[in-house]
Amino acid sequence: MSELKPLEGKVMLVTGAGGGIGRAIAMEAARAGAMVAINDIGASLDGQRESSTAAKEVVAEIKKLGGRAIANGDDVSDPEGAKAMVRQATEAFGRLDAVVNNAGILRDQFFHKMTYENFDAVVKVHLYGTFNVSRAAADVMREQGSGSLIHMTSTSGLVGNLAQANYSAAKLGVAALSKSMALDLQRWNIRSNCIAPFAWSRMTSSIKVDSPEQQERVDRMKEMKPEKIAPMALYLATDAAADTTGQIFAVRNNEIFLMSQPRPVRSVHRSEGWETATVANHAVPALKGSYVPLDVSADAFCWDPV
């Protein structure tokens, strides 16, 4: 275990921690001195249950390091499952200082082919899952008078991406939900922040490759390791981040970004009010130069990661 332990004595719950980003965060949290509750239902990429061993394997790895961890197999999309994992963490370790809402699934389809079932399933895990676990944790943290809620959003929602209407809607919803939590819970010293991670994981491995350019992009993504996300997540769980709340960060390899949040860009005023014709002839021409382009995430992050 590392000599420098900024999370010594703290308890962290990480959802979807059986692999990828969640596992990397959980392992680094343990090295930083935290007691960690490892949640993972052992599901396939599209959310179908496969095995319950993933969480237990991470727990075993942490214990080999001399750390303390427990495994949980509840479903974040089930409110009772969320309550159960929070209860298990607090009963095992006596408190709950940080939650990392990382669990997720993908069911990518172009919008005109998107089924209700695939839209619902993705929103349930990402958005409802974030609500369920955070809501259960908030009761414990309010009683303590402190806590840190850390949520995984995505540039698919913040910027945009093709064939991910379900995932994009859920992830942008997570960002808005996080801001509301930050506002509502600040009186109890509970903070809420988002991270949009760039990393090669089981989820990103599902990206379809149908051109040399796409293959090149995927090859670059393979170089971005899940472990690169952990330092930002761990920082947000430490006391040093006490004045950081309501923010959205992105982490891409060795780069950390503070992401913008929607604010007025430009305005036009007409003292006598507007009609359809004056909107067309005056308002829109004045505003059009500030339109947001129809970008995807790769357009906004168009340079190679460093």
Automatic annotation (TrEMBL):
| Pfam families referenced in this protein's UniProt entry, alphabetically | adh_short (PF00106)
Q: Which SUPFAM superfamilies match?
A: NAD(P)-binding Rossmann-fold domains
Coiled-coil-forming residues are none
Family statement drawn from the similarity comment of this UniProt entry: Belongs to the short-chain dehydrogenases/reductases (SDR) family.
Q: Which InterPro entries match?
A: KR_dom, NAD(P)-bd_dom_sf, Peroxisomal_Beta-Oxidation, Sc_DH/Rdtase_CS, SDR_fam
Record PANTHER family: BLL2957 PROTEIN (PTHR45024:SF3), DEHYDROGENASES, SHORT CHAIN (PTHR45024)
From what superkingdom does this record's organism come?
Bacteria
Q: Which organism is it from?
A: Harenicola maris
PROSITE patterns hit by this protein: ADH_SHORT (PS00061)
Q: Which residues cross the membrane?
A: none
What is the protein's name according to its record? SDR family oxidoreductase
Which stretches make up the Ketoreductase domain?
10-206
